[in-house]
Each structure stands twice: as structure tokens, then as C-alpha cells.
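Allow me, if you will, to draw on your knowledge of protein folds for a short while. I have a record of one protein: its chain in single-letter code and its fold written as C-alpha cells. I should value your view on which stretches of the chain appear to form regular backbone elements. Thank you for your consideration; the sequence and its C-alpha cells are set out here:
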Amino acid sequence: ILLVSAGLLVRSLTRLFAIAPGFDPASVVTLQVQLSGPRFRADSARNRFFDEALAQVRAVPGVVAAAFTSQLPLSGDLNDTYGVTVESSDDPSGRQGDPALRYAVQPDYFAVMKVPLQHGRLLDERDRSGAPPAALVSASFARHEFPGADPIGRRFRFGPMEDRWLTVVGVVGDVKQTSLAAGEEPAVYVAAAQWMWADPARWLVVRGRGDPALLTAPLK
């Protein structure tokens, strides 16, 4: 019985490890950075801190690319999920879509995690504060909300950004959020500079050369 159980467990693990997570974790280091206290009450102070920190991280020898994100894939976190309203010619107020995960990221996030671009463009310096709100959507989001249609240029409202339309500028691959065994949850990626508030806690993701463990001390 023990041998059979062990064999089944090994086979199940082999199947799980064969599942693509949607990103490449090799040579990637992640650290969570949390801001607190009166010094960082203002969004401008938070954004300035993360911008300056990222500039210093990119200067560390061995760093290939780095970015901040509001959450990580495969973290199991489904709390950062918001409602979706899709622009519709049949209903001026929009069609209610399914909720989606929010990733507030800096543009280099996709270079670090190697989440593939399938269609359109990635977020870049054009997607700054004050510019027309742009968004990337996951492949599962595009299939479900815009079936049989090109999602590029389509608009939707998202969570607290209910007073403005986000325009889809690109479609990226699905990533696993809860586990390798679970399906893909629809996701929306917005530029951190365009979100309604500056997240006080963010994940730093860094892709390095060689052994990523060697970067831990200098990154801290």
C-alpha cells in the first residue's frame, strides 16, 4: 500500500511540474517592500520612494531587469479582485463582466517574469499618470469578455476606476495564481502610475544573471 501510494504521489507531482505556470521563475528574486508611517501617507511620496528604490536596484551588478508589482503569480492571493464592466453598443452603461485579478505593475514586469505578449503592445512610458488609462488583459479575460473579436481598442471599467474607461492595448499569456492544478483566473494589468492609489506594499521582482541567491544581500 505504501509503495502504491508513493508511486501515485510521484506521478501526480510529475504531472504538476509539467504544467507551465505562465511565467519563468528561473533566476528571479522577489522581495516584498512595505511602507508605513506619516512620511508615506501621500501617494506622491510612495511613488517617489518606489521609483528611487527601483533606480538603485537596477544599478546593482548582475541585475538584468527589475520592477515592482502589487502581487505575484502563484501567490494564492485572490483578494485583489475587482468587478468588470465592458463597454457595449447595446447598453450605454456597459455589460457586466466577470471579476478579474488586478496587477498594478511597472512596465519592466513582463521582461522580468517573461509573461509572453500575445497581441498588441506592452505597457510603457506612454502609460503615465494623466495619460488615457490603458490596460493589458490576460488571454482568458480576452476570450471570455470579447469572444470572437479583437480586444485591442475595446474599453472596460474596472473596480474603483468606475468613472473612467480603460482601453485594452495588449493581450498577455495566462499565469497561474492559486496553484498549478487550478485553472487560469482572468487578470487585468494596469500601470501603477495610472491606478487610483499608490499601493504602500509592493513586490520587487528582479531577474539576475547566474545564481539569484547572490543578489539577495545587495538588493536588501
Observations:
- The chain has five helices and twelve strands.
